[in-house]
Design brief:
By secondary structure, the chain is an alpha/beta fold. It is about 25% helix and about 25% strand.
């Protein structure tokens, strides 16, 4: 029997365009940040989030009504949205910011996502996003979004099971001592860990289909949010290069070298 309309899930997956994980990061000549004139791709943790949304639909069949992806970034972020659409998402939202604008901070992103959720006429039952972006490694957006929405949250998820009948999700998350199982009421914000799944490669037919899927364009003004960063980066420098070590012939020579370096012995 087909689930009733009230029980159909709408899933939102925020994603980010980031410097590709295989690129060797370098500081730009102005020392204002890193060199961005390199290969970019979808943040790996967000790829896992898209994959999990598609897998939930595959497991629950007709119980998932839609999977929508959203990104907040410059014009080239549209390519990242197309990748997510090719993986199986139905539609996308691009909150476009000027190419020259500094990247928004987690709180600004969370406020923008809240505004996006509030604009969805059919509502959002589940938000799945990466636990962190590999560029700033902040790991804050999911938690801030849950706080702003007043929703349950389950971070660092390694397993997600959704019960549409009870509107409940069982989430296994990784903690220092092992695994923790949470039972959360929907709506829910989930952040993904590495071991949740392995993202699929988009097939050529799906890449072609993705070109026809709708992308809604919005601006920060449309959402009524200010994405201006609160923090200012004064200077970015590369870490000092490692200096090679030296060899000593015996303990006495080692002690002499340590004394020259101003290192004194400490009694246990």
């Amino acid at each position: 029997m087909r689930p009733s309309a009230a029980r159909l899930l709408n899933i939102l997956v925020p994603i980010k365009r980031a410097v590709d994980y295989s690129v060797k990061i370098r500081v730009n000549p102005q020392q204002t940040g890193i060199d961005l004139n390199v290969k970019h791709s979808m943040n790996p943790f967000d790829e896992i989030a898209v994959e999990e949304a598609v897998r939930i639909r595959e497991r629950l069949k007709d119980a998932v009504k839609s999977i929508k992806v959203v990104t907040i970034g410059p014009s080239k972020s549209a390519e990242t949205l197309r990748t997510a659409l090719a993986m199986g998402a139905d539609s996308a939202i691009h909150v476009e910011i000027p190419d020259s604008a500094p990247p928004p901070e987690p709180l600004g992103i969370a406020k923008a996502l809240r505004a996006v959720i509030e604009r969805q006429k059919e509502g959002v039952d589940l938000v799945i996003l990466g636990k962190q972006a590999i560029d700033d490694d902040a790991g804050q957006t999911g938690q801030m979004l849950a706080g702003l929405m007043g929703w349950a949250q389950a971070t660092f998820a390694s397993k997600v099971e959704v019960n549409t009948a009870d509107k409940v999700a069982n989430v296994t998350r990784e903690i220092d001592g092992g695994l923790e199982e949470l039972k959360c009421q929907l709506p829910l914000v989930v952040t993904t860990d590495l071991r949740l799944n392995e993202p699929r490669y988009a097939s050529l037919p799906n890449i072609m289909k993705a070109k026809k899927k709708p992308i809604e364009k919005l601006s920060a003004t449309d959402l009524g949010v200010d994405l201006t960063p609160r923090l200012e980066t004064l200077k970015v420098t590369e870490p000092p290069k490692r200096v090679g070590g030296g060899k000593v012939e015996n303990v006495d020579e080692l002690i002499a070298k340590l004394k020259e370096a101003g290192i004194t012995a400490v009694k246990a």
